Each structure stands twice: as structure tokens, then as C-alpha cells.
Amino acid sequence: MTRVLPLLVVLVTAVLFGSPAPAVGQQQKMAMILPGPVEDGDFNALGYNALKEVGKTYKLETSHSERVAVADAERVAREYINSGYRIVAFHGGQFLTTAQKLAPQFADVSFIIETQTKQVPANVWNINRHFYEGFYPLGVLAALTTKSNRIAYIAGIRLPDFISSLNAVYTAIKETNPKAELKYAFVGDQNDPLKARQSAQAMIGEGADVIVSQLNLGVIGVTEAVKASGKPVIVTTFYTDKHTSAPAVYATSLLLDFNQAYRDVVGSILKGQRTGQYAMRPGQAMSLAPIHNIPADVGKRVEAVYRDVAAGKKVVPDILDKIVVP
Fold first, then answer.
1. How far are the Cα atoms of 112, 128, 135, 170 from residue 142, in angstroms, in the given order?
2. Where in the sequence is the domain holding 107, given as residue range(s)?
């Protein structure tokens, strides 16, 4: 009978939760699913580094899968869960639907997602990326810097938190320099330099002299387009500070500290808080890189606007369900 009971426990657990329960005293295991390569020096590298840090901080066994397409995310996640992983993080807003599908099926697993969704299941933490708050100061920078009054915004995937960023840039431009026009493009891939370069070339050809980029590796294509044009075009970007890679091109970057975000969220999970919203915003796991290639007075004004947003003195509209740019 003593041999049968453990087997019954496993079977009952599998029926109720869809996966075997971890053994008592077993080391907690956390997995992360990433959409791109961890050596990109950008978004995926930041996620991978955060995974390693929380693993070290909380003595977790960690694993990751990179270059995972949305269509494969569910299969990869199920493999981790069936292998005893009880914390599964989806590093990318494109995986929201997958997490929402799996969460009710695996009540003993804590999932982490990164979107601007307002409601999550009882076993899901959302790192709510308030990109729009950080992109408002970038819109102010573009509005004050442009000489042609033509500004471009280029992103890859049309995600809700990217739409809200675009709308925030447009709002900042209209409030700061109503004469300026904003053109935008979603090229369909965050990591395709060729598509990004083609889009940037078209925007520059139409007179854009400031490009607000919300791309990952694709931003390399934007930089190439600027250099090839021979025109004085500046670019803002996000995730990491890319100034040293093109000192004459980049104005600044919106920096995201995923180490802090994951450290706080995983710490809460380990304390028993299985769900919640973590606001990644100016002043919390989000900062502004040093500003270059624009007049000093403009830089100071942009920094002041950023501080006002961080302090809540400037409220940025969060419009993520539609694009308001004409």
C-alpha cells in the first residue's frame, strides 16, 4: 500500500492540474520563453539576463527557449510544465493568448507575461509595460528637434502597448509642436533589419529628420538607412542604450530594467502571491539614457518632461485599442 499512495497522488494531481506535483523539498524551477536570440544585445538578452539573476537570487533552477514562434509557444510551455517547472515566463507581448489559454489548465503553475492587459487569471503576473509613458518624452524630443516638421515612428509588431506608444508620441508632438507631422509604419517583425531599413528609407525620402524607433534588432536597419542617406537624421530607440554603436545617429533611448521587474515579481510569487500587476514605467524599472545630438536646452526640457511623467505631474493618455494618428 505504501507504494500505491505516491502513485495515486501523482495521478490525482495530473487529473486536477494537468501536470505532476513537484516533490517535497525539490528545487523550484523557472523557465523563460523568448521570441528572439539571447545574443541580440537587446530585448531578448535583457530577458535572459533577468532569468539568470532571479535564478541566482532565489536559488532557482532555470532554463530558457529562444527564437520561439507564437505558434510553438504552447508546445514549449507544456514541455516545461511536464518537466516540473512551476514558474513559466513569456518574454514578449505576442505570447499573451498562449498564457491566457494555459493558465486555467495548470492552476499549480505561476505564469508571467508582459503586456498592458488590465485583467489576468489568478495564477498570472503581468509586467505591465507602460511604454506610452516613456515614449511621450521621446515625442517631445522629436517635436522640439525636427527642422522639417516631419517625424517618423517605426515599429515591428502591432501590439497594444506599441499602439499606445505611437499614440503617446503623436500626443506629445501635437502638444509641443502642432506644425509637425507624424508618419508611422509597423513592418511586421521586430528583428528584421531589411524591412526596417526599407521603411526608414521611405520615411527619410519624405523628409523625416527624426525617427522614433520601437524595434529590437530591426533598429540596425534604421541606422543603416540614416547613414546611407547622408542627411542629418537622428533616431531614438528603447530597451538598451545604443549610442556607442552609432554616435552621430542616436539621440537617446528608453531603458528597461527587466532585472528589477523579474526580481520583484518572482519574489512575490515565491512568497505566495500568485497574481498581480507590476507597473514597468518611468521611475520603476524604466529610465532615460543620456541625451546626445540635440541642443542642450532641448535635452534639459525633455528630461524635465520625463521627470514630470515619472512623478505623475504629467498624465499621458493610455490609448491602446486604436491608432489616433491621422
1. 34, 25, 10, 10
2. 4-130+258-280
